[in-house]
Amino acid sequence: MFVPILLSVIPFGILLSLILFSNRKPTHAGAIVYRKQDGRTLFLLVSSSSTKGKWVFPKGYIDKGEKPVSAAVREVMEEAGVRAKPLKKAGVTKYTKKGKPYCAVYYIMRFSEFKNQGLENRQVLWLEKDEALEKLGSANSASLLRKVVV
């Protein structure tokens, strides 16, 4: 009796999202990395591994037993060859891919140093906020970046 009442009040898609994502632990961790250069604030974007021409924040799976913030630091190093210091949580995005639910937690990080070229052979861009917002391939990512104040 409870479900039919919910279905009559809440559209099915929203109800399905609530069921899929309620109390969902993060599956992925990523970072919004920034650095100061010549009085400007630049943000790190990397080329997508799955979609040519798409730009994203470094992000990847959280390994079993790994803390999300550690996974985010690792992903920044693997994808961009950059060391960065986590400062605070930026937010969470929830999405589905091929019908499977995912949850990604992002951290704001300050650039520390260039370490190497990265292990994943990704292209790397450092852009001012407005430019980064134009390049980002995901509305979720752009929404996170809009809220960042550094």
Gist of the model:
With 150 residues, the chain is an alpha+beta fold.
Structure explained in plain terms:
With 150 residues, the chain is α+β, with helices and mostly antiparallel strands. It has a single domain (24-147), classed as Nucleoside Triphosphate Pyrophosphohydrolase, CATH 3.90.79.10. It is built from 5 helices and 7 strands, in the order ααββββαβββαα. The chain has helices spanning 2-9, 12-21, 68-80, 129-135, 139-147; strands at residues 28-37, 40-47, 55-56, 59-61, 82-97, 100-114, 124-127. Helix 4 packs antiparallel against helix 5. Residues 13-22 have low confidence and may be disordered.
Q: Which helices and strands appear, and what pairs or packs with what?
A:
Elements lengths: L1 H8 L2 H10 L6 E10 L2 E8 L7 E2 L2 E3 L6 H13 L1 E16 L2 E15 L9 E4 L1 H7 L3 H9 L3
Parallel strand pairs: 1-6
Antiparallel strand pairs: 1-2, 1-4, 2-3, 2-7, 5-6
Helix pairs in contact: 4-5
CATH class: Alpha Beta
String of helices and strands: HHEEEEHEEEHH
Mean pLDDT across every amino acid position: 86
CATH architecture: Alpha-Beta Complex
Radius of gyration: 17 Å
Say which CATH homologous superfamily is assigned.
Nucleoside Triphosphate Pyrophosphohydrolase
Strand content: 35-45%
* Largest sheet report: 7 strands, mixed
Structural class: alpha+beta
Fraction in helix: 25-40%
Tell me the CATH topology. Answer: Nucleoside Triphosphate Pyrophosphohydrolase
Number of strands: 7
Low-confidence stretches are 13-22
Global outline: globular
Task: Determine the number of helices (DSSP H or I, runs of at least 4 residues).
Answer: 5
Query: How many domains?
Result: 1
Please report the distance between the alpha carbons of the first and last residues: 50 Å
